[in-house]
Amino acid sequence: MVQRQESTAMAIRQCAIYGKGGIGKSTTTQNLVAGLASQGKKVMIIGCDP
Q: Which of 16, 17, 25, 36 is the most exposed place for a label (fewest CB within 10 A)?
C-alpha cells in the first residue's frame, strides 16, 4: 500500500515585468531571493532579459 503525504507548502510566483531598463528589476529580485534563501526557503530565479 502506498501512502500519500499531503503537502502543506505553498508555492508563490512573483513576476517583475517592465519595459524600461535600468530600474532595478534584477537587483530587487536578487535581494528578495537572497532574503528568502537566508530564511531557509527554496527559491529559483529565471531571467529572460535579452
A: 17
SS3 state of residue 29: helix
C-alpha 2/C-alpha 16 separation (Å) is 41
The DSSP 8-state label assigned to residue 5 in this structure reads P
C-alpha cell at 35: 532574503
- Please say whether the beta carbons of 35 and 43 come within 8 A: no
- In tens, the pLDDT along 2-44 reads 566 666 677 878 777 777 788 888 888 899 999 999 999 889 9
